[in-house]
Design brief:
The complex is a heterodimer.
Chain A: H1 2-19, E1 25-26, E2 29-30, H2 36-45, H3 47-62, H4 71-88, H5 97-120, H6 130-156
Antiparallel strand pairs in A: 1-2
Helix pairs in contact in A: 1-6, 2-3, 2-4, 2-5, 2-6, 3-4, 4-5, 5-6
Chain B: H1 12-25, H2 34-43, H3 46-49, H4 51-96, H5 98-135, E1 146-154, E2 162-165, E3 178-180, E4 185-192, E5 197-201, E6 208-213, E7 219-223, E8 231-235, E9 248-251, E10 264-273, E11 280-286, E12 295-299
Antiparallel strand pairs in B: 1-2, 1-12, 2-5, 3-4, 3-12, 4-5, 6-7, 6-9, 7-8, 8-11, 9-10, 10-11
Helix pairs in contact in B: 1-2
């Protein structure tokens, strides 16, 4: 059941990105809401689930872009694992933790992807446009982190109303 | 002198003085006669206040109304006069203005003949150019068959400068084909499926191609600098070459160029000197608006090799 819900959410997120977010520019760039998938998965279900969700979301993106196949999956997988690992080390849930995860995960994920595509894809992605792109991605994900967390809890079937679940 | 005057001092000199003052002040056009009314008013003559007023008003009205009277009937008279007099006026002008009209007509005929001659020469030049192009196997890009496609969307990634088209190999498209609009160059096809294709825009920083300055003939290599930004020619343009601002820039088409020759790209904007001091940097403002693409044309042309 979790897998079905996750697949449905992934399709909806991809549709939202392609039909809406990609057409609306902020700071001269558009958001990447699919990067929220590994972030919220890591926050709600830990590093393994975050990595798995990130890989699936990244593969979905790679199917629709012309950058080297697999780079997005690799980046999202790493971000999902990192956010989940960070969340696991938190002793007490805090209201600012999702915001911090959204900002840091989005910024690091965007920069990491730019670096890898520059090295692997013979594409000069590390240029003067990168700060604007990071700002746009962070802005979108900060706005959507709240609803995304609710969706993630629904996928996990978690009735707990706490913002994040702190693992022992 | 009692009984003659009214409210004044009853001194005839004062009455006369009042008349003189009234006359000196004079009556403005259309206004009541000051002498008649002022003096009469002072003397308290009701006759002046009423009956003579009417006479004065009538007289003034008659005089004042004359332009209106003529104004209403003037148009009709004028029309009637024109209708009657036009044949005579035409005859008059025909007799006494014939020479001027004839010379003007001759000048116009001469000008028309000159223009017809220039058109014939231009057609001949065009024909000769086509013959030379055929001999030298030079193809003009405007003669290349095209496929019109609709832009369906942009790229999902911030690190790509691409757009998608609603046509693909089923419509005769193939990877590497140039894409243009009515204004100029847009990019080239990088991915083609049966019903969709992806265009890499010339604004992509990772995209470079050969260009030529139309006036000076200078050859250089241009590359994109990002979305909404102009192209930069920083290779090949020698510093001593005189480059004019707003000079047209086209594709060079030389060697292994990925575009056919003479496709309009943009116009020269800013100029600068390269760090090596040997070449100049030319900023090229694109002719095609890459931010507002709706329909494009794909040239069914592939580079050699």
């Amino acid at each position: 059941m979790t897998g079905v819900r996750a697949g449905l959410v992934l399709v909806m997120a991809l549709t939202l990105q392609a039909a809406f977010v990609a057409e609306m520019e902020v700071f001269g760039a558009h958001g990447e809401v699919l990067l929220l998938v590994p972030i919220v998965a890591g926050l709600t279900a830990g590093p393994e689930r975050g990595a798995t969700a990130g890989f699936a979301a990244g593969i979905a993106v790679d199917l629709l872009v012309q950058t080297p196949f697999g780079l997005t999956a690799l980046t999202y997988c790493l971000i999902g694992y990192a956010v989940g690992a960070f969340q696991s080390g938190v002793l007490r849930a805090s209201w600012w933790l999702p915001l911090l995860a959204a900002v840091a995960g989005s910024a690091v994920g965007t920069v990491l992807f730019a670096l890898t595509v520059t090295v692997v894809g013979d594409v000069n992605a590390v240029n003067g446009d990168l700060p604007r792109i990071v700002l746009a991605v962070v802005a979108w994900n900060v706005v959507l982190i709240g609803p995304a967390l609710r969706v993630a809890r629904w996928v996990e079937g978690d009735a707990d109303r706490s913002i994040v679940r702190v693992r022992a | 002198m009692e009984g003659i005057g009214g409210n004044e001092d009853r001194h005839p000199r004062l009455v006369l003085q009042a008349c003189v003052e009234a006359v000196e002040e004079g009556a403005a056009p259309g206004e009541h006669d000051a002498l008649l009314h002022d003096v009469g008013g002072q003397l308290g003559r009701c006759l002046v206040e009423r009956d003579l007023d009417r006479v004065d008003d009538g007289g003034d009205g008659l005089l004042d109304g004359r332009p209106q009277l003529l104004g209403r009937r003037d148009d009709r008279l004028r029309e009637a006069g024109s209708w009657v007099g036009r044949p005579f006026a035409d005859a008059w002008n025909g007799v006494f203005g014939y020479d001027e009209l004839s010379s003007e007509n001759e000048l116009l005929r001469e000008r028309v003949a000159e223009l017809e001659g220039q058109e014939a020469q231009a057609q001949d030049v065009l024909r000769q150019m086509e013959e030379i192009e055929a001999l030298e196997d030079i193809s003009r890009w405007t003669a290349i068959p095209t496929v019109t496609a609709r832009v369906t969307g942009g790229s999902l990634s911030n690190f790509q400068h691409t757009v998608e088209l609603d046509k693909g190999s089923d419509h005769g498209l193939a990877e590497g084909m140039p894409v243009v609009t009515g204004a100029g160059l847009v990019g080239r096809l990088t991915q083609v499926t049966g019903t969709r294709s992806v265009v890499q825009l010339v604004s992509d920083p990772n995209f470079s191609f050969g260009v030529r300055l139309a006036r000076s003939g200078e050859i250089g290599r241009a590359h994109g600098t990002g979305e909404g930004e102009p192209l930069v020619v920083d290779q090949g343009a020698e510093r001593q070459v005189d480059v004019n601002r707003r000079e047209t820039v086209t594709t060079s088409g030389f060697g292994d160029s990925i575009f056919p020759a003479d496709v309009p790209v943009g116009r020269v904007g800013e100029l600068g000197v390269a760090p090596d001091q040997l070449s100049q940097i030319i900023v090229v403002d694109l002719l095609a608006d890459l931010d507002d693409l709706a329909y494009v044309r794909v040239l069914q042309w592939l580079p050699a090799g």
